[in-house]
Amino acid sequence: MNERAVFAEIFKLGKVSRPELAQATGLSKPTISMALADLERARLVRPIGLRTGNAGRAALLYEIRPQAGWVLAVDIGREFVRLALADLVGDIAARRDEPRKGGETPDELVASLAELTRELADEAGASVGDITLTVFGTPGIHDKETSSLQLAPNLPGWERTGAVELLAGVAAGAPYVVENDVDLAALGEGAYGYGQGVAHFALVWIGTGIGMGIVIDGRLYRGAQGAAGEISYLPVGEGDPLVNRGRGMLESVASADGVVALATRLGMRGVTSAKDVFDAARAGDPIADRVLATEADHIAHALAGVIAVLDPELVVLGGGIGVQAGDLLIGPVTDCLRDLVALRVPMIRASGLGTEAVLLGAMAVGLTTARDLVFERAVAQLPAG
Amino acid sequence: MNERAVFAEIFKLGKVSRPELAQATGLSKPTISMALADLERARLVRPIGLRTGNAGRAALLYEIRPQAGWVLAVDIGREFVRLALADLVGDIAARRDEPRKGGETPDELVASLAELTRELADEAGASVGDITLTVFGTPGIHDKETSSLQLAPNLPGWERTGAVELLAGVAAGAPYVVENDVDLAALGEGAYGYGQGVAHFALVWIGTGIGMGIVIDGRLYRGAQGAAGEISYLPVGEGDPLVNRGRGMLESVASADGVVALATRLGMRGVTSAKDVFDAARAGDPIADRVLATEADHIAHALAGVIAVLDPELVVLGGGIGVQAGDLLIGPVTDCLRDLVALRVPMIRASGLGTEAVLLGAMAVGLTTARDLVFERAVAQLPAG
DNA sequence: AGAACTTTGTAAGAGACCTTGCCAAATTTG
DNA sequence: CAAATTTGGCAAGGTCTCTTACAAAGTTCT
Fold first, then answer.
1. A33 Cβ within 7 A of any nucleic strand D atom
2. Does B306 touch chain A (CB under 8 A)?
3. Is residue B365 part of a domain?
4. Same domain, yes or no, for B295 and B214?
5. CA-only gyration radius of chain B, Å
6. Inside any domain, residue B190
7. Nearest CB to A229: which of B151, B228, B309?
């Protein structure tokens, strides 16, 4: 139908008049009026007032009715659970970061998420039943065959068949999507970060673990098993690959733990986190400098492989290390890549989204999906209403 | 329009009756009749006769008019130039393999290709002017900005700005497409080989050089600069990466030259080509076995990186080494990958298309593009005719 | 061999949908 | 306050496709 095109256009343009819609969609005025009447009956859009100031008659402006749908985004991280509830236009009405207790069973986690969701809905002046769609960002790989999470050691119990289906209980049975957290961060980068308007890019996530989200033609690429971008297993650095089985070579040398281990090995004292090393480097500590140089070298070698395969236009560094030390790493990594890459080195940038990347990505996916859902549902019952 | 759907369906089904088309497209019988009348007036399809045998009235069968378009596929290889001329349904009407003189200038090469094209057109009972589209497969990367070929040392002179435009002269100014040969081989594998029906796969080409073609969602993925899959630069094997600058580490250890070099280093005598080594291995030569094992190991390590990034459903080995030694390599490579890959190892197969892969891929691209071209052209002048 | 049945192809009618053209309403500008 | 301009609504017309009905041409059964 034509209503779909009009609906999509209103999202793109915000407050908009009929003639503007006609212009944008290429449809005629009567068609636009008809479509708007239907959309208004379906309570998807609403008139917002007159725009005066231009010559001629004042135009009646329409906008999406924000309360036509609600999206809940949930980032299930290692230490925190983050939630955001937004209306259909994407304005976040309620937000919460909650430290995780650790070692919860799936049931316990779902129960606490459900409680938080109720609180958020209250705060937003909505009810849990109004939630159109929930998007969960989790570590590991969501195996849809068995509804379980693989390769997610920090979520014990979720590797069991059917465990993922428990998440339906968070928002009273509303539809939900489960996506890898790094993949969501990549989508967040594409929607709100440096990936805007870039067709092909990769987000490399370096933190406690290492992963990569790949965006091709503006859409997430997951691979055949949903394991695309699992670069923690890239053969990088010295040593027998078999020694590090199960964790991945790149991950063991380049992750936060790897940075701390190397710093300690080189003689730094009192280092308990990667951030300590970066702070020391900023203060001019020569050992920390060497650690950083080694880290940049490892990252560059990993990126060389990624670039050879994918030839992206842009690589964004995210995750704990990307956020904390991105500014220190971009330069050396780019320099090192010049020696490793055949053609032009793609842009390398540090993510500006910080710890919000996953949640923002979840919201971006959720909003586009929710818009389709809401439209489908409303149009299905249009003839009756 | 609806004619497009009907046209596409006839390609898929071959000889087909109106009721079958109605069934397949979901359109009604009168609509099909109308569309067929238009297509016939445009000389895109033709009635081919009655099908009797079924109960009821005999159905009039229609098919694509093969002479409605011609596609020329050209594989510009290192030692040979291969050409094939096919009609719009894909039947190859004329075929030619010509050894290259070596060291030709672009003008000389184009002139000899143009002469061969004339001969092929004669053989096929067509004229050069009938050719709808030409597809060229070349080594290196086609830079569309400058109309030149990069990273193609075997095609001297083609790195100059505008050189690629000379190719228009091969088939009297008909539209043409220039694509990397390995990428075309991947598309060939997708259209006629093991890649049929596989959404995400990679074709790894190992011969004199090394490359990879990536198919994602059934379509070729080229990357931002057209350099996706240039895996010759993957950091694999021992040694200083800088030593092998310009050639790529993987390429220097795993290509045909690399195999010969390793065999000689390990003490084999009289080895001049990789094929000698494989023949010896088949005859039970222990040194050749070791060379093969090493080769399998190198390939597996390279594939481990590719798989970690792309998570393909299938990896096909092609090119000289893939074709000659695919059967010997598949086993050891797969075994080795089990130790290097986190999740399930994708299928690894040796291409069955042999030296035809590039040409078949060029033909596959050419046919789909030519169908669109022919349709567009014919429908544009329909109102008049 | 002929009647009955099945399938195919065409013609006519009807309905949905969108556009064009025209006119009234509302606001700014001179 | 009138002219100009833009907006919104209404009516008529055209295009496209489907449904229905029927004629045509084959097969199968008796």
1. yes
2. yes
3. yes
4. yes
5. 24
6. no
7. B309
